[in-house]
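Now for my pick.
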Amino acid sequence: MASTRRFRDFGRFSGQQLPEWYGFVIDPADCAGPHSVRSLALRPFATTPNVLLMNGYEQVPWPDDVLPIVEAVNQAGADRFRCVQSTPPEYIAAIRQAQPELPVLQGYLYSGRYMPILKGVYSSRSQLKLFNNECQRELERWAEPFAALAWTIGIAYPKVQLDKAWETLLLNHTHDDVCGCCVDPIAREMEARFEQVQQQAGEITEASLRVIANSIDTSQKENLLALVVFNPSPRERREVLGLRLNMPAGLDTFTLKDGRGQTAPYQLAGRTGNKVDLYLYTADLPFLGYRTYYLTPGVEAVEPHPTVTASAEANTMENDAIWVRINADGSLTVTEKQTGRTYQNLGYFEDGGDMGDTYDYSYPPHDTIISSLGKPANITLLQAGPLLAQFRIEITLELPEALTEDRQARSSATRVYPIISFVELAAGSRRVEIKTVVQNVVKDHRLRVLFPTGLDAAHCYAEEPFDVARWPIQGEPMPDELSEVEALLTAGRYMTPVNTNPFQNFVDYTDEQRGLAVISRRVTEYEILPEQNGAIALTLLRSVGWLARYDLLTRVGDVGPHIFTPEAQCLGRHIFFYSIYPHQGDWPEEKTHVQAMSHNLRPRVVQTSSQPGKLPDELAFVSLQSREPAQAFRITALKRSEAGDGLIVRFFNTLDQPVQGELKIWWDQVTQVFKTNLNEEEQAALSHENGRIAIEARPKEIVTLKLKLSPRLLIDAEHSDLTRLLPPLSFGNTLPPVELPPLLTKGEVQAERDRVDVLEAALVKVKADVFTREDDIERTASQDDLGKQLVLQKLKTEVATLTRQVNEARISALLNRWLYITKKIEAELAEIEANMGWSRTKKRAGEYLVHYYESWLRQQLETRQRD
C-alpha cells in the first residue's frame, strides 16, 4: 500500500506500507498453489497493479533460494500475474510510472490504530534508556566537543577512542535491544557495554578539559588555586554549582574571584578537614567556553546577587521568580511570582498494575491505583540558602507485591515501598529541581510522577530528535469494527487508545497564555491526563515479567516471543532527575528548550594551580545565536570533521518558521566555511568575517556547517599534575533498608518447564489431526473440496503456531533455569567470600596472638635461666 509523506517545506517522498510485515515469500510452501499466493491476499491494499513481496526476515538466518520461488509464483499465476526478482528502487519506480492518486500523510502517524506502534518500549527496562541517554549526552555534548576544541589548540584528536566508544554504543542500538524488548542476558550485556562507553567517553572528556585548563594562564593572579568552570552550551549561562574542593592546609577562610576581580558568591555546605563542600554562583559563563575563578585567603564582601530563602517551619522556599511549599504529603505548591499563578499538588506519585510486556503497557481487568496524595511525608530542610535551598522528602507507600496468579488483579499482599526526593531551588533560577530515589521492591506495576497543570489545551509539545513536536492530547479513537481488508492488519494493533508518547529533554503543556513544562534528562515517556486536572505524567518505572504476551487488554495479536523475563521487573534502586518550569505564553517565547538544556547539561569544574599559559582565563570558543526570535537554534554536534580538516557544527531550527542568526567563533585560523549535508559532503560556501558567519535555517531544518582550519599550538610543554576534574556534590542515594523480593523462584522455573510439556502434548495432538485430515483428503480424492482444505489449512497453521510456542517456552525454561542456578551460585560464592574474608582476618589475628604468647614465654624462660 503506497502513500506520500509530506515533510513541512522539504517536499514529499513516497512510502510503502507492508501489511504483512516484511517476512513474506521465504518459504516455497507459500507459493504452492493459486490459493496460497501472497499477492492475491495483498492485492486489495495495492494502489497500483504492482505488489511487493519481501524475501527475508530478521529472525531467519537466511532466505530460501529466491529463483525457484519466483518460478513457482509464475506457474501458479499463469496468465493472471507475473513475478520478477526486483529491488526496492525499481519497485518505487514502477509505482510512480503508474501515476496513482496517493494519499498524503503528515505528522508522526502514532495512533497504533492499524499497525503495531508498541509505545510501551519507551518505559520498559527504564535503566537501559537512562544509560543510553547518559552515554549519548556524554559523547555528543562533552567528549566530542571538548576533544575538538582541544584539537584546535594543538592536542591530538582521540579519533580511535571516540570511534570505539560510538561503535560500542551502537551495538546497543538495535531496535529491539535499546527498546528493552530482549531476553535478560541481552539486557545484562547491554548494561556492561553502556558502562564501558560511559567510562571511555568520560576519560576523553576529562583529558580534554584538563588539557585546556592546563593551558590557561593563571599566574597573573595571586591565588592558592584556580577553578575553571566549563560551559557546554553555545550561550551564556548563570548557574549555582555544587563542588567538593581539596583546600590548601591551614586555610580557614577564603574568597573566590573571577579574572575581572569580581568576588563570586558561594554557600558553604560542609567541611571535613581540607575537604570543603560549597555552592558557587557563576554568572555569565561564556558561550561554549570557560571562566576561571581564583581562591584567595580571607573573606571579602560580595556584590549584590540573586538569593533564595527557606523556612523549616513552613516548609517553603523562594527566590525572585518562584515560591514553593512542600505540602504535608510531599507534593509541591508552586507559584510563579510574575503572574501570581499557582500550581497545586505537583510531583505526587501514582502506582497502578501492569499486566503488559516489554512491548506494551496493559492495565489488569481489576486494577488498584495507589497515590501518595494525602499520605504523610517526612520533610527535612537540608540547605537554607542564600544560593541554594534544598528539602529532603521521604514517602512510604504500601504497594501490592505483584499480580495475582491469574493476572486479573493486584495481589492483597503488600510491601513497603520507600521513595525519597530532594527538591531544590537555586538563586536566580526559574526551575524547581527534583531528584527522586526509589527502591523498587514490587512487581507487575507502573510508577508515575504527576504534575497537575489545570490546563485544558488540545495539544502539548515535546522535544524529539531534531524536532519539537506538537502532539494531540486525545489519541485517534479505535474503530468499533474493521472491514474485511482492515482486519488483516490487526497484529499488534491497539484495542483502546494508548496516549503515552516519547520525549527527549522536555514536555510542555500550554494554552499559549500560560504553561507548565516538565524537564528530564533520563525519563523518556509521558502522558497528558485531561481527567486528572490536565496532569503531565512521567513514567518512572514499568515493571513487567514477560518479553511478550498474548493476553493484553490494550493490544491484539502477536508481537514477540512469549518468554519469561524476570529481570524486566527492574527490582532495586533507581534514580531520576527532573524539574518543573512554570511559565507564561507558549514554549518558544519562554525558551523551554533552553531551560531543558540548563537542567540536562550542568557545567563542570576543573581545579588547577597557578601556572603560565597561552589561553586567557575567560574564553568563548563558539556561540550560536538566532535573531527574531532569539534562542531558536538547538546545537546537536560539535566535532572534528571525519576528513580531519576542520570542525563540524550541527544544529536545527526548533520553530515552524525560517530563522536567521549568526555563528561566532574564536579561532582566527578558519580559512573556509561550508554548508554540508549530514554526511559532511560540502555543498555551498559561506562567507565569514572576523570570526562571524551569517546563517539561516528553514522551518525545522537541520543545518551542518564545516569550518576548515589548522590547529595552533597553544599547549605548554609542562602541565600541573594538580589539575583534576572535580566531582559534583553527591547526596541522597541512601534508602531505608528494604528487603528485595526474590528475583526468580524455583516454582517459576518449574512453571516454564510445565508450559513446555503442555505445549508439546498439544502439538503432538494437532499433528495427528493433520495426518488424519490429509489421509482423508487423499483417500476420498477431495483435493478440490474447499471446506476440507480450509480445515486442513487451519490445522497446519495451528501446528506452526504451536511449534513456535514450544520453541519459545523451551528458550524461556532454559534461560530461567540458567538464571536461577547462576543466582544461587553467586549467592553461595558471596557467602563464601564473606566467610573467607573473616577467616583471613581471624587467621592474622591468631598469628599475632601466637607470636605474642611465644614472645612472653621466651621472656619468662630467659628470666628463669638468669635467676
Q: What stands out?
A: The radius of gyration is 32 Å. Residues 747-866 form one domain.
